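Box 3.1. Reading complex inputs
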Amino acid sequence: MSDHLLLVIAWVLLISFAILSALVLLVLTGFRVGRRALQRRSERLAASVRTDVLDAVLNEDDASTAARQRLLATRGRARNRVEDELIGLLPRISGDAHERTATLLRRMGAERSALRRIRSRSVSKRCSGAFGLGALESRTSLPVLLDLLNDRSFDVRRVAARALGGIGDPDATEPLLRLVRGEPEMARDVGFALARIGEVGSATLREALSQSTASDDVTDRSGPLVADVLGQIGDLESVGVLSEAVRHAVSPTAVMAAESLALLEMPTAVPALLGGLSRTEPEVRRAAAAALGRLGESEALTALVSAVADEDPAFSRVAASALADLGPDGLAALEQMDSAYAVEAVALARLAGRGVH
Amino acid sequence: MVELLILFTTVFGLFFAVYSLAINSMFGVLTAIAVLESRLIAQRREFAGYDESFGEPRSRGVSVLMPAYNEEASIVAAVQAMRALRYPDFEVIVIDDGSKDSTVETMVKAFDLVEAPLALAPIAPARGEVHTTWVGRDGSTSLMLLAKHNGGKADALNAGLSAARKELICMVDADSILEPEALLHISRPFAEDPDVVAAGGVIRVANGCEIRSGRVTKPQMPRSFLASIQVVEYVRAFLVGRAGWSGINGLMIISGAFGLFRADVVRAVGGMDTDSMGEDAELVVRIHRWLGDGDEPGRVVFVSEPVAWTEVPEDLGTLSRQRRRWHRGLTEVYSRHRGMLFRRRYGTIGMVTMPAFWLFELVAPVVELVGAIYFVVVLAVYSMQEAGVVTEEFVDPWILVLLLACALSYAVLMSLVALLCDEVGTARYRRTRDLWVQLFGVLIENCGYRQLTAVWRTRGLVDALRNARPEWGEMKRKGFADQSSA
């Protein structure tokens, strides 16, 4: 390569890097300075409406009526700010305050505004719209939110899933399950939504768990999710399907089923959990042992005593802890054992003041 | 002969220029990936439902392991801050690695601990045995203390692993300050994807920040010149570099100051390697190897929201020992796991990350040093040319100066882009003054600091090749008692 060509290339590169660096520096400075200015403006705006927002939400007197009127009279950026503050508050309040806030927002046209935003090309606006519809618990927007489960943006689908939880309509249960089967990374959000939908969706969930138990597909995340949710919502009718899952489902589902049976605290689950102690997967055995401890039924004593002597240290520890949870009989059995896990469980139980000799 | 020397000079000069272009271009690609990620994060943050995550009853439990050595001055504040993390289910296990001061007594008194015979399940032979264990007076195991004979950080972590009861293991340094929602953020990938086996968070520089009750309340650039350069370095290497690698599923290193792992996987690979000085990197590489050998699905990810703040060295002596040790650790990792290089079964790690790290991290300090020597030699030859001592024209000074200027300006550009990425994604520093300090740090990092660290890193490489006796040294810490910039 000739020296001249090399020189030209070097100059071009140097000048390009210098220009780009200057541009990046400008943008960086703009961001830093601009962000502070925006923040200050936002804080001023928030401060100007905050007192009225809190008065309107928390109280029901003449002052709060006047505050609501003032909020209804806001326009432009101030109106948007008020809406954002109120919508942000909604998930955090309940009872009369929640009802007052939702009513105020509807009068302000927040639902219409949210519906407009979900048609925007901007992902942030669609998320904001979906979030708003969920916070308002607007049942009429159920079809719109179900449609958003097919949005091209992951974030919009996620927010729509959570918003469906806010609305609480059981018709959303099956679409949410389809969503998580197709996108396992939605499990946390779909679980949140299903738990909020609650008992009204439990029939669909029980059916889904039965199907999952019959299937061998370890990649299907709907199984453990459904088992988890049934326990969270306290669906006592699901003891049967959960017990089947502990016995026969793939291990992620069986583990969640065991944990849910512990939450439901039904003694009828003990035989299934004793079966779980014999499964080959260590995580299922641990979950079954822990659940037996939570249930505290003495018929688990013999099986747990054998479990303490298992060669899997994590299983031994959980089994010893579960025995301690069974009460005086369990502790008496532990005191007869040499196992380090038995000694630990007894010592911890003594410190906790649980009755020992 | 003369033509040969001219050719030699030219080829070498081009080599260094191309190498510099390549290393910065690689970083440019990583930066582009990290920029996309930071946009997504900024977009997602408002609607990601983190507040609700705190209330989720089935969040996976976390065992936080804190190895401690001679930390009597700061251990109570550090543990209090750790216990105040917002997370529904976690335990803190402090492992005292044979402190010569009163770390243990301080802990026992401050937290009202009592001795209890905890059952330990060792996963690797111990260098220093655990001799006493403590729990809360009410039998609670939410805080446990293990006292052991000295065996090093990796050995202490293995002891903690043997006592851990939760599904996930979080390894932190005793002097790390985690943000209150750090566990919520870093555990999220595990909840969303069962294939995630390890996750790393961002490490930021605590020097100069306002700290109240064990929390960084106001991030600020340090007053120390050396620490402020390291802020830029950490943003470039930790935030941008690792986010980029994570984006292509090629993350090879998770910092020992803050990482979250699946406990079953760490146990399956045999815990921490007590012979390695880079035990954090070595663990992650060994996990990748285990995944590849067993053809198991698994991902190691970087999460750019959870932050651990740590104190960095403010004197050259401590900094040099630290960098020498880090590079020695990296060399040892390569030495142990060189069989993974260019092997398809190890995926992006074997085919892309490890070769790139070998070329642009491991041997980079040697190349930089040789390049610096080359430049000095060439300058000397040019002086001789000008003085008439040498009659042939070996060196065109303009080309050399321009190539050097290109290399430096490209590196400065990459550092600026890293700062911009940080500003867009997380915006930690608010003051305009901090921006000027960062910009100054960018200039000095690329004009002098990196060349200096090249010397230390080369020594680390030589230490590893010679298998020299390890030297940890001690860092003079200020600790995290309440600090303010006032």
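In summary: Chain B has a mean pLDDT of 87.
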